[in-house]
Amino acid sequence: MKKYLAELIGTFTLVLFGCGAAVLAGNFVGQLGIAFAFGLTIVGMAYAIGPVSGCHINPAVTIGAWFAKRIETKDALFYIVAQFIGAAIASGVLYLIASGSPSYDLAAIGLGQNGFGANYNGGYTMTAAIIFETIATFIFVFVVLGATHKNANFKFAGLGIGLTLVFIHIVGIQITGVSVNPARSFGPALFNMQALSQLWLFLVFPTIGGILAGLAYRFRLIYND
């Protein structure tokens, strides 16, 4: 149970402070600040709960690890459930905080939800969103699996993983707001009908990216064992 609780807390923290940077401080810190908020949260959580659960805090990472035969099926299922619960709770808490400001409008500002199309950030198409989310998630999970490989230097794993998430956000915020994490997309979408209607993309294609990364390690495309 400690592993599952760690995953819930880690995902809660990622969504609260990553999405919180966009909702509560986006006008002050900008896209770069939001990118670092997500990345640095991963760094902190990696060292806090990594020894307990491995700090997946992302269903795509968990699924990739399962395909790479790094996690048992039971643990993978409970990890994913914990991650979705943590993201949903974090989004509710973020809403309670944001609504404490008289200038906050849920319909106009949202909760850092992901999206695509003419009415979202850079107006990128669904095709662009699919390509970006699949490739970015593949790269992210590929880095996670590599940084935590038995031949890697574990002391720097959290830093490498966190910085990878930073550069993915720097590139991708205008495209989709950057998911690469189905749970991160799920929580904020619960409070926004437009995001909820587009949620399928952020459930399906980050998962595909995670699977591809897991298979790359399972079939030893990089490492020999």
From TrEMBL:
Positions in coiled-coil regions: none
Keyword Plastid: no
Subcellular location: Cell membrane
Topology class, membrane: Multi-pass membrane protein
PROSITE patterns xref list: MIP, PROKAR_LIPOPROTEIN
GO annotations of cellular component type: plasma membrane
Lineage: superkingdom: Bacteria
Transmembrane segments: 35-55, 76-98, 124-145, 157-179, 199-219
Entry keyword set: Cell membrane, Membrane, Transmembrane, Transmembrane helix, Transport
Main location: membrane
GO MF term list: water channel activity
Entry similarity comment: Belongs to the MIP/aquaporin (TC 1.A.8) family.
NCBIfam families per the UniProt record, alphabetical: MIP, PRK05420.1
Protein name stated in the entry: Aquaporin Z
Taxonomy of the source species: Bacteria, Bacillati, Bacillota, Culicoidibacteria, Culicoidibacterales
